[in-house]
From TrEMBL:
Belongs to the aldehyde dehydrogenase family. PANTHER family: ALDEHYDE DEHYDROGENASE-RELATED. PROSITE patterns: ALDEHYDE_DEHYDR_GLU. The lineage of its organism: Bacteria, Bacillati, Actinomycetota, Nitriliruptoria, Euzebyales. The active site is at E236. This is Aldehyde dehydrogenase. Coiled coil: none annotated.
Length: 494
């Protein structure tokens, strides 16, 4: 087993080292998780809740330590690390309040002729061992946070964080193990394997269900592997989130929102402001306000709250995508009203592009960086058509003072979540199922869907008939068959 260096992209310093785990290491981790699972399930909803509550409290009391690890491995601003922490804690709090209802038996209707004399209930069971594989942009929330519901549902979990940012996820797994031990809960309920894609692939080959958050490319590879093994998977993939700004929108607020949601975490967010369509009448006024805000942001490395604004490019190679998208746009006639081609490979300047169109990669492919392309449109129909001209369907936003019109437009956009005068923060509302359509994935975090995916549903049907035999049973008789045929007409022929 060799080691992987973890590098702070803001400084280039090695800040940690983790083992690059082989398929054998992964098999061992999954075996231990599999052996722990029955005892974890046997703790029941309340017992599991007690452990998870204790872990949450410990994370809160040691949050400065976790934030430092996040900042060190990603180079991001203190506030962006805090966002990862907050999202994780909100997911934990949500499932503590809502998992019990999802684990209870559910009575099902048997109405209809075939249900006469019958009762049915659904019972919910853990899959066994869940493998949770995550990306580098929010390493705690999108690896551990995405697996909290799986733990409440009685699964044990093996986390596989991104090789770029493994330290924070491993830190959480260590805290979980300590706290579980303090309560005499089983060992190996939550563990963490480290390594690159090969380690992730080895995990997919062993577990009973895969929770994946990451790129479309990897998601498809994982989906194929899961189909081959007949195991379920949930895929939270990329996006090319469109915003539509109508002429009646509050332009100052939209410009402030676009600056934040487009550049928060250096634009390395799946639900970003990846492309903005603005009605002709307000396009210039909006661009002026947006550029004025974007051009004042700080990109230098910070140290502590309030010391910098825009995160560096966290993953190696990310700046190449940003550069390629800006270069392609400029070559095809776009203009950068602020920023431009990156001069710094770690801290590219936040860039607002105008005169863009759908021949340009910046409008059709996920950039995942600090660029905000703004396109002028004649009217809302053109904006909706362009918003839907994409294989992705993660999130979208509509900005208008007319809320009813905004909601009507939202219904026309092909995305898992559409916000009116808002963006992104729906992910913190645990009751909302947040997931993508099209290339953006299948499955959701939040809502009932966010825990059902970690459960196997079994339906138990009980027949309470006092009759010695059902009419339709063998042996067949002329009279009964004729009567049943007449019933077909009565039941289904009307
Ligand atoms: P990635 O797909 O490159 O890697 C994600 C994880 O998959 C990493 O842990 C990686 O080691 C692992 N992996 C790679 N190959 C694998 C394989 N063959 N089998 C199993 N695991 C494998 O993604 P990334 O670059 O880390 O993250 C950025 C992407 O994540 C962006 O596309 C972004 O939109 C997406 N994302 C989506 C959401 C969402 O909620 N929809 C949230 C955050 C990020």
């Amino acid at each position: 087993m060799s080691d992987l260096d973890v590098i702070d992209p803001a400084t280039g310093r090695v800040v940690g080292r983790v083992p690059s785990m082989t398929a054998d290491d992964v098999t061992k981790a999954v075996d231990l998780a599999r052996r722990a699972q029955p005892a974890w399930a046997a703790l029941g909803v309340d017992g599991r809740h007690e452990v998870l509550r204790r872990v949450r409290r410990e994370i809160v009391s040691r949050r400065a330590e976790l934030r430092d690890v996040l900042v060190a491995e990603s180079g991001k601003p203190w506030e962006d690390a805090q966002a990862d922490l907050l999202l994780t804690l909100s997911m934990m709090a949500h499932w503590e309040s809502n998992a019990a209802a999802a684990c209870a038996d559910e009575s099902l209707s048997t109405r209809g002729v075939w249900g006469l004399g019958r009762r049915a209930a659904a019972t919910y069971h853990p899959h066994g061992v869940v493998g949770a594989i995550g990306p580098w942009n929010f390493p705690v929330a999108l690896t551990f946070g995405d697996a909290v519901a799986a733990l409440h549902a009685g699964n044990t979990v093996v986390l596989k964080p991104s090789e770029v940012t493994p330290l924070s996820t491993r830190w959480v797994a260590e805290v979980f193990a300590e706290q579980a031990r303090a309560l005499d809960a089983p060992d190996h309920v939550l563990s963490c394997v480290t390594g690159d894609g090969a380690t992730g692939a080895a995990l997919v080959a062993e577990v009973d269900m895969v929770q994946f958050t990451g790129s479309v490319r990897t998601g498809r590879v994982i989906a194929h592997a899961c189909i081959d093994r007949s195991i379920p998977c949930s895929l939270e993939l990329g996006g090319k989130d469109p915003w539509i700004v109508l002429a009646d929108a509050d332009l100052d607020r939209v410009a402030a929102a676009a600056t934040h949601y487009g550049l928060f975490n250096g634009g390395q967010v799946c639900m970003s402001a990846e492309r903005i369509y603005v009605e002709d009448a307000v396009h210039d006024a909006f661009v002026e306000r947006l550029a004025a805000r974007v051009s004042t942001l700080r990109t230098v490395a910070g140290s502590g709250p309030g010391t910098t604004d825009v995160a560096p490019m966290i993953a190696p190679g990310q700046v190449d995508v940003v550069t390629a998208h800006i270069r392609d746009a400029l070559d095809k006639g776009a203009r950068a009203v602020t920023g431009g081609l990156p001069a710094d490979v770690v801290h590219p300047a936040p860039t607002v592009l105008v005169d863009v169109d759908h021949t340009m990669a910046c409008m059709t492919e996920e950039t995942f960086g600090p660029t905000i392309p703004v396109m002028r449109v004649h009217d809302v129909d053109q904006a909706v058509a362009l918003a839907n001209d994409s294989a992705f369907g993660l999130t979208a936003s509509v900005w208008t003072r007319d809320l009813a019109r905004g909601r009507a437009i939202a219904r026309r956009i092909n995305a898992g979540t559409v916000s009116v005068n808002d963006a992104q923060l729906h992910v913190g509302i645990g009751h909302l199922p947040m997931g993508g359509v099209g290339a953006s994935g299948t499955g959701a975090r939040g809502g009932m869907d966010g825990i059902r995916k970690f459960q196997q549903r079994r339906v138990v049907v009980t027949n309470r008939s006092p009759l010695g035999r059902e009419l339709s049973w063998l042996p067949y008789g002329r009279t009964v068959s004729a009567a049943l045929d007449r019933a077909v007409g009565l039941l289904y022929g009307r």
